[in-house]
Amino acid sequence: xxxNRKTDALPQPERYVRRTxxxxxxxPAGSGGSMKKMRHMRRLTAAxxxxxxxxxxxxxxxxxxGISGKPVRTQGEGTPAVVDVTGEMETEFLDVGxxxxxxxxxxxxxxVIDTGYDDTLDDVTEYLDSEGIKKIDHLFLxxxxxxxxxGASGLVENYEIGTVxxxxxxxxxxxxxxxxxxEEALHEKDIHPVTVKEAxxxxxxxxxxxxxxxxxxxxxxxxxxxxxxxxxxxxxxVRMLFAGDAEKERIEEIMTQIADLDFDLLKVPHHGxxxxxxxxxxxxxxxxxxxxxxxxEGKEDAAEExxxxxxxxxxxxxxxxGSGDITCRSDGEExxxxxxxxxx
Length: 344
Description:
CATH topology: Metallo-beta-lactamase, Chain A
CATH superfamily: Ribonuclease Z/Hydroxyacylglutathione hydrolase-like
CATH architecture: 4-Layer Sandwich
Strand order of the largest sheet: 8-7-6-5-4-3-16-17
Number of domains: 1
Low-confidence stretches: 2-34, 44-78
Structural class: alpha/beta
Number of helices: 10
Strand content: 15-25%
Radius of gyration: 19 Å
Shape: globular
Helix content: 25-40%
Largest sheet: 8 strands, mixed
């Protein structure tokens, strides 16, 4: 990872930023510390409790093709494992329009969640190359819409790929050219993706990913979006949730699939589209930061204002990728988020 590569976040429109004084005024009088410190104290207490009880489960990444890993402690289904923090985690939300592409780096490995459009592939490869990344150890595709899988074939063709994770359905049923290109690239490189059918834990250095698959194969509406994989990343006491393009039915599932929904950062589902249960979901997650992968305010593909307001009401500082790449740095205890001006 390159150090000090980003500048401080640029000023954003009032509706997108929950100001510091508002956060301070929301703290209980005489609390003796910020809400952020209280959150980390709760998590530290929970982590210590793990060591006072017997292990309730072990998962080992060895049964699936292409996966190697190590056993880690878990607290049961839906609860992340605990590993010692040994370095920093850097997460970059790339400005690729109304599309998702997220790059996560640790001391020695790289993960990518979704790949943007095919015509934003150059933006993705430019970032990867600037970071000196030659191998993507873990490539997660939350679902097969073109704004998530569009650049996948290019990444598979041009970078060494460790393991690919995908949901349990085929976009062939919709005659998706982007999906076909992705499948052809996998075949050419003899890569066999892991189809996630049940909750899966993955350790990448000192980061623990937990991948939650959809509970159904068919949904009443927007079946592709609702079949999104949802990914939690735990780095010490810092927690991030990447919610794909989940819509109402899938959001309902998330709120029962994940035992502890308290996250520091939320990648907002479906580019900031407001659902009937979005407000309930935001309150449950209670993120300090929220990232919406969409265009900036005033453009056609901007985030819905109602969504931004609901996130702010839940206590989140909201960032939108259309205003520029967003950099999140974690040392396992504290998370900082900055944004640089868009070059698009």
